[in-house]
Amino acid sequence: MVQRRVMSMVKCALVVMVVASAVVLRAQESHIGDMVGKAKSGKRLYERYCLYCHGPYGDGTGQSAPYLDPKPRDFTKATFKCRSTPTGSLPLDSDLYDTISRGIHASGMPSWKPLTRQQRADLVAYIKTFSPRFHEEQPAAPVSIPPEPATSADGVKRGAEIFDNMNCWACHGRQGRGNGPSASKLTDSKGNPITPFDLTSGTRFKCGQSDRELFRDLVTGLDGTPMPSFSDALKPEQIWDLVHYIQTFRSGHKSQTSAETIEPKAEPKSE
């Protein structure tokens, strides 16, 4: 009887060990389409290309970090700006791969497209080893992006009103230049000063340049920054109107209702 119990406990322990090993192995890999990235290969690439900004421990304290604005990402927190998953969730492997491939506009993070697709997948696998969250959690399902309606003057006007009502201007400024009255007070999740994005700066945003990518960012928020998710505050059709209005800043197009013509309903509270 005792021997059977001991054997049963041993079997259970073995099952737990096998499952735990599978979870660890999974966290040491990345899966992007038909590619499987390996952390062992990614480590060598990280040490060559990423260490000087993100640091040997992935905590964003590399030798170049003091000279960069915004600061390099702290991978140990597993908090990432550019994701297809809801706020607070881990990114998909493909999200990290896309960020490495695309880079982050208006930051020190360049595009690493000169690396092969497999090398980028290996880098994703190694980056995941810096945080235990990738061992303990699974990413949530990607946010849903409904079909984009056609841009219209009425939609742009509604978007301008939403920009005002949601106090977007308080950070991004009335003309979208990132110089709103709250801009100088903003910090990232580690307490570093951070500047709101200048919506007039070229054809790209932080995490892409298409309308769908901008819609996604408004739904997911940019974790680690003051930019929140609007998924609970706005309906999808309102978010599309806001997207179409924001696009008028970067295109130079003057809509029938511009930000300057809408008076703010209240000044932001000082902290």
Question: What is this structure's SSE topology?
Answer:
Layout: H1 2-27, E1 29-32, E2 35-38, H2 39-49, H3 51-54, H4 93-102, H5 117-127, H6 133-136, H7 153-165, H8 168-172, H9 211-220, H10 236-251
Antiparallel strand pairs: 1-2
Helix pairs in contact: 2-5, 4-5, 7-10, 9-10
Q: Key features?
A:
Cytochrome Bc1 Complex, Chain D, domain 2, 271 residues, mainly alpha, 3% strand
Question: Would you kindly provide a brief summary of this structure?
Answer:
This protein has 271 residues and is mainly alpha-helical.
Characterization of this structure:
- With 271 residues, the chain is mostly helical.
- It folds into two domains: 29-136, Cytochrome Bc1 Complex, Chain D, domain 2, CATH 1.10.760; 153-261, Cytochrome c-like domain (Cytochrome Bc1 Complex, Chain D, domain 2).
- It has helices at residues 2-27, 39-49, 51-54, 93-102, 117-127, 133-136, 153-165, 168-172, 211-220, 236-251; strands at 29-32, 35-38.
- The chain has a two-stranded antiparallel sheet with strand order 1-2.
- Helix 2 packs across helix 5, helix 4 crosses helix 5 (117-127) and helix 7 (153-165) crosses helix 10 (236-251).
Mean pLDDT: 87
User: Span from first to last CA?
Assistant: 68 Å
CA-based gyration radius = 22 Å
Q: How many strand segments?
A: 2
CATH homologous superfamily classification of the largest domain: Cytochrome c-like domain
> Hey, roughly how much beta strand do the residues contain?
under 5%
SSE string, helices as H and strands as E: HEEHHHHHHHHH
Which blocks of ≥5 consecutive residues have pLDDT under 50? 9-25, 252-271
Number of helix segments?
A: 10
- Sum up the overall morphology in one term: globular
Could you say which structural class the secondary elements and strand pairing correspond to? mainly alpha
CATH class of the largest domain: Mainly Alpha
Number of domains: 2
CATH topological fold name of the largest domain? Cytochrome Bc1 Complex, Chain D, domain 2
Main sheet strand line-up: 1-2
**CATH architecture identity of the largest domain:** Orthogonal Bundle
